[in-house]
Amino acid sequence: TANGGNGVDVAFVSPQPLAESNRLLIIFRDGVMTLWDIKASRVVFVSGRTTQQQSHQEEKNVTSSCWACSKGSKVAIGYDSGDIYLWAIPDIFSAENSSSSSNPNLPLQRLNLGYKLDKVPIISLRWVPSDGKSGRLYINGFSEHAYLYQ
């Protein structure tokens, strides 16, 4: 891991699908994401910490991530709390329209691996596309009390 200048470690770096030589998604340990344009050497998009995390100082760390679509417009991020957030990311085709109507600090979907108060940390996430429009997200979670695979 590397430090991003704000005192928070970089957890994952991944090239954006369909823009592999142009863009990188950098995900910090605290959940903040930065989409970096390599050729322009500038930030295209910043998102990640939810309003709930900011206001309640909710402490959770990123433990895994993966792209959750073939064109690079969604990313799944797993946390040590068992939460999985699905975030919208501007793809290479909508780069000029990055001022979309959606709030970048709200995930598209929030899931939790576990039952009620169980906090099963997400160990790995893997997206497997099936046809051109859909796919499956495979999730591994592990704690001292549970091992879950969904």
From TrEMBL:
SUPFAM superfamilies: WD40 repeat-like. GO terms for molecular function: GTPase activator activity; myosin II binding; syntaxin binding. One of its GO terms (cellular component) is cytoplasm. InterPro entries: WD40/YVTN_repeat-like_dom_sf (IPR015943), WD40_repeat_dom_sf (IPR036322). One of its GO terms (biological process) is exocytosis. This is Anaphase-promoting complex subunit 4 WD40 domain-containing protein.
